[in-house]
């Protein structure tokens, strides 16, 4: 009984790894399968992120409005006033927290799939970078885990480099969710935010842009190796204007997290998805996973950070110059895919489809 109380005390006093270390002290009869508990913690860690991303912003907005109708209206008023004062913070580098980025919950998140980050070349702290992440998948699990947390050791692999994962600007208009995202170093994917990071924040910045965006998520499915890139040139023009080097990043297994009902082009359902995408800024995909529909399949995700492409600073690049570096980036991404595909479950005959 004393052992049980000691373990329970350890759980209350600590977080993350202390939970498991406390449970390890329990007698074997009381703790028959530690691996099952670890698996449950992994599922919970993934589920909390999915639910937070889908519902936290809406739920907290509704709660804030409700609080104005209760005796807690003063708390709601103070928070709203602070929200107005703090409105532009996401566009000005955000408010990252190394403590949040190093939460133990993210190691459980990482181990659920598992997710790995592989470095192929050094990134110099004296330069700024735009990392193009491919493919989008449904929730960009690889992008979040590798660049929004320290679970895969980004800062140790790339010392002196500060990653900023760019996501929908609309997320930063929602109370509480905006702060949760900023704590991980996540920023809005808009011109003002990226301009600030690449122009007013010194060097050693790496802005991670999921180039395919919402349109790409409509095509993702297990075994699908397709990226939306042919006409996506804005990030290349921005790199030229800021003199930021381009780095291709490919995640093998990102599309295997969920299965999706993909509607053919020209159908009413596909037209509805595209219309909602333009209105909402994201694609309403019909997907399902392993447990309860929203828990993803535990398939490995391996993220490869490719070789940087040195980009000169040109304030007003011509279309020809943009096309030149866009072509270089595309060839570099294809080369990265071809070099590593057979190491991570694909066949030599598999090709990367560029749309």
Automatic annotation (TrEMBL):
GO terms for cellular component: endoplasmic reticulum membrane; lipid droplet; perinuclear region of cytoplasm. It is a multi-pass membrane protein. Its EC number is 2.3.1.-. Pfam families: DAGAT (PF03982). GO terms for biological process: glycerol metabolic process; triglyceride biosynthetic process. Its main location: cytoplasm. It comes from the Eukaryota. Pathway: Lipid metabolism; Glycerolipid metabolism; triacylglycerol biosynthesis. It is an enzyme of class 2 (transferase). This is Acyltransferase. It comes from Kryptolebias marmoratus (Mangrove killifish).
